[in-house]
Amino acid sequence: MTIGVFDSGLGGLTVLLKIREKIPNLSVIYLGDNDNAPYGTRSPQEIYDMTCKGIQVLFDRGCKLVIIACNTASAVALRKIQEEWVPPDRRVLGVFVPLIEKITEREWGDNSPPRKVAVKNIALFATPSTVTSRAFERELGFRAIGVKVESQPCDGLVDAIEMGDLYLADKLIDTYANGLLERLPDPEVVVLGCTHYPLVKNLFTKYLGNQTKILDHPDIVCESLKDYISRHPDKIGDQNKSYFLTSGDPKNIEGKALQLSGIKVSFNSII
After folding, report:
1. pTM greater than 0.90 (yes/no)
2. In terms of CB atoms within 10 Å, which end of the chain has fewer, N or C?
3. Are residues 69 and 86 in the same domain?
4. Which tens digit of pLDDT belongs to each residue from 66-85?
């Protein structure tokens, strides 16, 4: 039993941690495209091409279901991938929709018309490409009306996290949090719209305050995955071993993963 988890770098490890905790019998092949990270400032075509290439690596290793644990790739490329590229016997899912379903109090597959929900304003921190795509607003608009989204592009933050430079990450989050709070002083919900950001969630809390409700993807995506697997057991691959792949330097990535997530794992190169 195995699935694939793809990310532009280390951010998907936040999702993987929860999968290990909540679905311990599920094997996962993880691929981080660290050599090309970050995706957040690349063109839509670059993001699409690199995401397809990474997913194909996981398909070739027996995965029938791949989770794109990268918000930028989910926002910019997922729809086109699902409509034009994925073979009929495979499935690729993203991380945006489960989070929005949680906010709008919807069950999976509820395609009823958009309606008013309890939340009226949301602060979104995300990569520049994710913000530009307006995918979050689009998916939210399919499900809810009357919700204001104030988005903050966080240029350079993924780079800082990938480098393990927590001092720079702290300074960037200070700047971005204060900038957003000037425009939206009291957000009801803060969304960390990049799976890298939970790795430094403590810094967001530092500048947003403990009273702020911060939502990130790992728990929500994991619960959605459990539900999906229960309804689509045919999308579970035949492998029974978890392992980690990277397009970057394995030893370097292992050190960064341990520093940021506490996960001690062995990465192998896909090259």
Report:
1. no
2. C
3. yes
4. 999 998 999 999 999 999 99
